[in-house]
Amino acid sequence: MRRVAVTDGMAQEAVKKLEQAGCEVVQDFIEHDVLVAGALADFDAIIVRSATKITEEMLNKSQPRLKVVARAGVGVDNIDIRAASELGVPVVNAPRASTQSVVELTIGHLLGSLRFIPRADRSLRSGEWAKKELKGTELFGKRLGLIGFGRIAQGVARVAQAFGMEVHSYDPYLPLSVAKKADVTMHKNVDNLFKTCTHISIHCNLTEETHHLINKKRIEMMPGVDPFNLKCGNHIVNCARGGIVDEDAAFAALKSGQLSSLALDVFEHEPVDASSPLLQHQNFHGTPHIGAATIEAQRRVGLDIVDAVLAVLNGGMAETTVNRKDIV
Ligand code: MLT
Prior knowledge:
This protein is an alpha/beta fold. It has two domains: 2-97 and 295-326, NAD(P)-binding Rossmann-like Domain (Rossmann fold), CATH 3.40.50.720; 99-286, NAD(P)-binding Rossmann-like Domain (Rossmann fold), CATH 3.40.50. The chain is 34% helix and 15% strand. The strands form two sheets. Strands 8-7-6-9-10-11-12 form a seven-stranded parallel beta sheet, with helices on both faces. β7, α8 and β8 form a beta-alpha-beta unit. α1 packs parallel to α12 (295-313) and α5 (99-114) packs across α7 (151-162). D-malate (MLT) binds next to loops.
């Protein structure tokens, strides 16, 4: 019988689908040390989210049994893809399932930041009625800069346009025609995006190129005034990956007022340290990496990843194999 380890949880409907396909499903978090000691050698497939890291050492001890490593989500930065490729093990993910949920959280953070929703709630609970102090700004007429213009950014662009925002983007990997069709202004230089937009939202992967892409120099480029010369401040949202925003630089910019709000769902080190000064700043809004944490997304993620795992276990190639080209 094929054995599948599900270490970081998965929707029950998806677990059932694996069982109906004749797999024994072991649903349990496996400690790092146990994986390093060779636990993967007892499984045909492993399905992880972000809590379990799959390293070269673990993969080297997984053969000949392990056929596929599956990431129930989008980001595969917790899996050593090079090591898996060298062993000929496909790494599969579920890139489409959480798109709508992340779009909605991004818009939620934008609205929450501009209208001080979390701050207003804290103030109300502490007995204040801070109606005069909590004067926000509208999304309407503002320039939104999207870093990356993949599925999630395109979804954010559609909603932002419905609010009357003017949408700009920077994505060196995408054909210009995609932006044109979406009525989005594409910039060839990322600095121009910062010089143009008062609102920035991140929708790219964390790579060497994007590490600390949002830093002191670029935050200082942001104009702080909208196209009608209204002082709307500068606002940044990151629901993509931690490490793209230099958190120290962003905190300094919040303190100086160059940044009016910062909303992060993802952090350079997760879970974020409770003593981080960011958490004390009233114009910082944070959520604990919950972009894909909806009932709908988790159901879709589970069903999509099970399809991918079964495709491999049945001798085929999953459509969402991320190391397709590199498997030796
Ligand atoms: C993903 O990569 O799918 C998201 O960041 C969600 C997650 O890791 O839970």
